Amino acid sequence: MTNLVQKLDDYTHEQHGTWEFLYERQSSHLRDKASSICIQNLDEMAQSLTSEKIPVVKSMAAQLSLTTGWSIEIVPGLIPVEDFFNLLAEKKFCTSVWVRGQDQVDYTAEPDMFHDTFGHIPPLMDAAFASFMHRFGEIGSALSDIGKEAELVMLQRLYWFFVEFGFVRENGEPKLFGAGIMSSHGETNHAWSLRDELLDFDLAQVMSTEFRTDVIQDKYFILDSIPQLEVDLNNWYKTLT
Q1: For the chain, what is the domain count?
Q2: Chain Cα centroid distance, residue 43
């Protein structure tokens, strides 16, 4: 994969303003709705995942590395699934460095840097989630190497319904977790309105549930334990080998 760099001088005043608007709107909107894993680590990263200007990827990566051993890889946009799994297996999360325009604050078809960093990076400061994501990448990479296409689709469904659009239960209460919810004002409102209709997270059911990327979600799963999910994922993988 080509080594890309973030060109900080290329960002415009308008882009920094858009970033600040998105950050402030979501961080305040999520305070009473999102998982502590997301909110507390967002606060912990305040000096690197900055609110008033577009963050420096190297600064975020340095903080991640010190905390959970993860880093960040800059990519041009959406990448092949096998490349994505390989990066996760190396404890690298990928991000684009383009920032949506002011006319896209409520929706962008392709994930931008706000989604990739605000949504995905703070939970990787949590040891349990970082461990799960590493193992998820290792398993995905191994299955990709041997051409297990059906099983790779099952992993993508797990990623979609947990990492992108999952809930977690904290102190008996549902809390938003997935990056697709965390980074989208509209998705936050929609998901939160359905918090009394959540499906209990069952790995087999999740892996057999299809999803669409072009519509707002109509079902959400709620997870009780991230460490237990890693155990369940490992047990599933053992049945394949």
Answers
A1: 1
A2: 17
pTM over 0.90: yes
- Distance (Å, whole) CA 7 – CA 228: 40
Kindly give, in sequence order, each residue whose CB lies less than 8 Å from that of residue 163, ignoring residues fewer than 6 positions away: 120, 133, 178, 179
Burial class (CB in 10 A: 0-12, 13-18, 19+), 122: buried
Which distant-in-sequence residues (6+ apart) come within 8 Å of 239 by Cβ? none
Q: How many CB atoms lie within 10 A of CB 190?
A: 15
The token duo for 179 is 């990056």
Of 93, 96, 112, nearest to 104 by C-alpha is 112
Range of the domain at 65: 8-238
What is the CATH classification number for the domain harbouring 51? 1.10.800.10
User: Mind listing the pLDDT tens digit for each residue in 146-200?
Assistant: 999 999 999 999 999 999 999 999 999 999 999 999 999 999 999 999 999 999 9
